[in-house]
Amino acid sequence: MDAALADPETGRRRQRMGLLARASAAELEAAWAALDVPPEVTDLRGPETGLVMLTGRIGGDGARFNLGEATVSRSTVRLASGRIGFGQLLGSDRDRARRAAVFDALAGTEEGGSVVERLCAAVEARLIDERRRQESETASTRVDFFTLVRGED
Amino acid sequence: MYVAVKGGEAAIDNAHRLLADRRRGDRSLPAISEAQIAEQLSLAVDRVMAEASLYDPGLAALAIRQARGDMIEAIFILRAYRTTLPRFGISRPLDSRAMRIERRVSATYKDLPGGQLLGPTFDYTHRLLDPTLSGDPEVPEPSRRDGGVGGLARVSDILDGESLIEMEADEGAEPGDITRMPQEFPLSRAERLQSLARGDEGFLLALAYSTQRGYGRTHPFVGEIRIGLATVEIDIPELGFSVAIGEVRVTECQMVNQFKGSAERPPQFTRGYGLVFGQSERKAMAMSLCDRALRAAEYGEEITAPAQDEEFVISHCDNVEATGFVEHLKLPHYVDFQAELGLVRRLRAAWQERGVVSEAEEGDAPIGEAAQ
């Protein structure tokens, strides 16, 4: 499974799917509205909500253990062109999972490729922004120790 | 013997209708929304997710609302909901080293790389009730500081640099899953950690406290606590690679405990580990203390205290199981109790009879003694 990660096309798709998983309902809706023609979609699986067991590592880096489950929604779709898309994200929002699957399938196509690129760029910019803000807020709570000089010398 | 008794349907319906009314409370006040609970009572949401063993802030908020704020009831509801869903798979292990840090403190190193990041903590507040919070006062935006947080080395890595601490090995074994297999003692450490991660915060806190007071002492230091957002990655078998599906907030506690050595190995610090859903520092600390106490057998320590007794701790830490068994006592036990009534009446009759007999035999001997 890890061998596939070396392929640059796979790398791009992984990144795109990761961003589509984080796209808000409003972002997906706006991108949907930007499509010239709403695509014809066949549901191959779902959209459905289920569980994924989240695992951790003992001590942070040792053997795996089961931490607890999380809700996950997923969808697999086929477009009229035959292209297949996968959507999967944390939470119970099946509509978002289905839209994410459609945009995954539309990536790189003439009818939707540019919309998907713009959507992913917008999501990425938002995530970077949120991350920077949160990081700078956390950094403001860093303790700067100083030593009080005591005595004559 | 069980005897089916019918009746009570109307009373039950009306009781639930009354519950719905009391849950809503004064209609002149606005109803509380799940979004408000998730945003403004987020640590309650975190606790429900952790002990229900299901990460979903929206559903946890709904459960809290439905349970009128009764946390164990909310945990029960969410745990029950979990059983209605199919399992799609198992995630890649969360990487706490790479997580987006919201808080990170160490009690063992003042100047550790990355520094002490306090984050949104109750520590150093004066715990004075704040009347100015009433209403909807303006809350200033948080301060910011450039330079970011950076990659934060673990305290265990620092100690490992000198081999001063035991390191965990990954043999690649598939971890046991307590939700899929009946528990059989002794458990693996992985199964214990799964139980503790969903265990009742109050129960684990009390046990952790007991170890500090001498009942299974382990001499702990907080090597490090970190709270942050970890990326969840799952494998997509159809595609042959893994993808990120979002982030979960977790709290990790690395407890550093007093040393163990042997003929083969020089003394090293030992470790207790806690990892919990959400911002749950107290729980993560209690978990790490209990984890270390439960490793007593592994280190050849004498097992003398409740916190070291795996079967005792694990069998009683689940508050859904505990509340089920305790609360079932209020359900009708009419027939059982009739049997007990009959028994105590027979015992009393026998006692009276013996008393009368011994009085006749021994004259004025007190009845109480005769009954023995």
How would you sum up this structure, described in words?
Chain A: GO terms for molecular function: lyase activity. Chain A: This is Phosphonate C-P lyase system protein PhnG. Chain A: Keywords: Lyase. The complex is a heterodimer of chains A (153) and B (372). Chain A has one domain (2-121). Chain A is 42% helix and 26% strand. Chain A has 4 helices and 3 strands; from the N terminus they run ααβββαα. A 3-stranded antiparallel sheet of chain A has the order 1-2-3. Chain A starts with 7 loop residues before the first helix and ends in a 14-residue tail after the last helix. By secondary structure, chain B is α+β, with helices and mostly antiparallel strands. Chain B has 3 domains: 9-82, no CATH class; 100-119 and 152-167 and 177-326, no CATH class; 334-371. In chain B, 39% of the residues lie in helices and 16% in strands. Chain B has a 4-stranded antiparallel sheet. Residues 365-372 of chain B have low confidence and may be disordered. The chains are: A alpha+beta (153), B alpha+beta (372). Chains A and B meet through helix 1, strand 1, strand 2, strand 3 and helix 4 of A and strand 1, strand 2, strand 3, helix 7 and strand 4 of B.
